[in-house]
Amino acid sequence: xxxxRVAVLxxxxxxxxxxxxxxRAGHHVQVWNRTDDKVQPLVRDGAVAAASPAEAVKxxxxxxxxxxxxxxxxxxxEDALGEMGxxxxxxxxxxxxxxxxxxxxxxxxxxxxxxxxxxxxxTKDPAEKxxxxxxxxxxxxxxxRCAPVFDAVGRATIWLxxxxxxxxxxxxxxxxxxxxxxxxxAETIGLARALDVDPARFLEAIGGGPLNAxxxxxxxxxxxxxxxxxxxxxxxxxxxxxxILDAARARSFDAPLAATAATLFxxxxxxxxxxxxxxxxxxxxxxxxxxxx
Length: 293
Ligand code: NAP
Prior knowledge:
The chain is about 50% helix and about 15% strand. It is an alpha/beta fold.
């Protein structure tokens, strides 16, 4: 595999793991992050720190954005786009929703920069191991240029057409399923405790049968133990529910479960769990009388 020059903007939970996967695959990686302390461990692993997004993207074949949301991504790329070379591709890999993806694609187009909508499925651990699933949409002519990067961070890439937006729409559909599962699980565990049923018995009873979900087992145990170390921060899960509701509303689709989940995530954030894992939505659903963690 040919070595690429890659810029990664945003080295949070996901961007850090992706950077290490890119380095392991032999790529040259320039990184930039708003908060410098997340960059230093990556420099020790072989990445090159850039002083600004504009500096990071200079000379890059592929620019990866892995920031919290669309507005932050738009702001940073405003300065950086003009520094990208004529053959460079912008792979936008954060979860920014439908409207922001369309806007970012438009901004890239105005600057003459090739754009691929490429959100990912998988969390902290798969990001570290290079085992994400990349959902990608964008011109077929760009696939070859993106392949070294997507192959390094992912176990597979699913291409979803030539128009940016298709991948982000599937990403929202997947996260709707995921966040519905986690919200439902939190209420189920709250109900178990309210009914004096040991939640571990519930997880044991569904384990191995058709009602099981491997995800329910480990997120369920996290809720039972009150172990909320972030793989997917609750504040970002809440952001995704808002993106889902915006996208549904734009197509006149009513999504009452997502609306309810969004209020639960907002309540858990208010209770101080914004930076904890999304499984801390349980805090919004624990039965009366149960002490907080
Ligand atoms: P994270 O650890 O919170 O990282 C967020 C990144 O965005 C950090 O680099 C942060 O910089 C940066 N950022 C936020 N606001 C900014 C601003 N206004 N200006 C400049 N930089 C800003 O989150 P993450 O889990 O890596 O998630 C990154 C993206 O991937 C999100 O869109 C998320 O929804 C998506 N995603 C996450 C997962 C997951 O399981 N964690 C899975 C799939 C997709 P600082 O370090 O300075 O705060």
